[in-house]
């Protein structure tokens, strides 16, 4: 196990966003979380990455040599967001949020700000190998890139931090179908290279055909958890998220 979320509750003032959410992500998996707009998917990712504090519950991290056998783990809810990045968790936010006035290369360098200078150049080469279009546009301002290219840049920026767990929030948002297929191919390749992925995605069919396991979040509560294959065949999931 890499991440364990237990009995998580998150509120915005008097409004409850997440209630009694429990789930886990195992090392090497792609796990997806699907649900309608407003279900609380983004809130969960923001809580894992330290941008929001939960009112109740725990987030246990078993990376970096934490004692998995005895059930111990680092309590992420006690850490600041930059400390969580240092632990090995990187968050690619909804809407990409690249630095529009900086070049592609400068955006990538910001992703690797915690890395040693001696490895940053190697990391740039690795990202450019994975995303050749970024190599071609390395001195271009990020704000002039297409939506798909900006999504690749946001993922590449996160990879510069050497994540053990990559949190992806709606990577297909606003992209053409051909570009969406390319982005999900990249996600599979990243996972095959050893990075665990926790994927929040409204395109339920694409998410479930990519992931190993999945959870369904409805109005802040996990209502289903199963293998991705079984969720694809689930009549309720088909009706609510797969168009029939």
Q: Rg, please?
A: 18 Å
Here the CATH topology equals: Rossmann fold
Q: What top-tier CATH class fits best?
A: Alpha Beta
Helix and strand sequence: EEEHEEHEHHHHEHEHEEHH
| Largest sheet, spatial ordering of strands | 6-7-8-3-9-10
Low-confidence stretches: none
The quaternary state of the protein chains shown equals single chain
Indicate how many domains the architecture comprises.
1
Query: What profile does the largest beta sheet have?
Result: 6 strands, mixed
Percent range for β-strand residues: 25-35%
Total strands? 10
Mean pLDDT, rounded to whole units?
93
Apparent shape: globular
State the helix count.
Answer: 10
CATH architecture: 3-Layer(aba) Sandwich
Give the helix level as a range of percent. 25-40%
- CATH homologous superfamily designation: P-loop containing nucleotide triphosphate hydrolases
How far apart are the first and last residues' alpha carbons, in Å?
A: 34 Å
Task: Indicate the structural class.
Answer: alpha/beta
Describe the 3D structure.
Helix 3 (104-111) packs parallel to helix 6 (147-159). With 244 residues, the protein is an alpha/beta fold. 37% of the residues lie in helices and 25% in strands. It contains ten helices and ten strands. A six-stranded mixed beta sheet has the order 6-7-8-3-9-10, with helices on both faces. It has a four-stranded antiparallel beta sheet with strand order 2-1-4-5, with helices on one face. The protein has helices spanning 41-48, 81-87, 104-111, 117-130, 132-136, 147-159, 177-192, 204-210, 228-233, 235-241, and strands at residues 3-12, 15-25, 30-34, 56-61, 74-75, 89-92, 165-169, 196-200, 213-218, 221-227. The radius of gyration is 18 Å and the shape is globular. The model has no long low-confidence stretch (mean pLDDT 93). It has a single domain (3-241), classed as P-loop containing nucleotide triphosphate hydrolases (Rossmann fold, 3-Layer(aba) Sandwich), CATH 3.40.50.300.
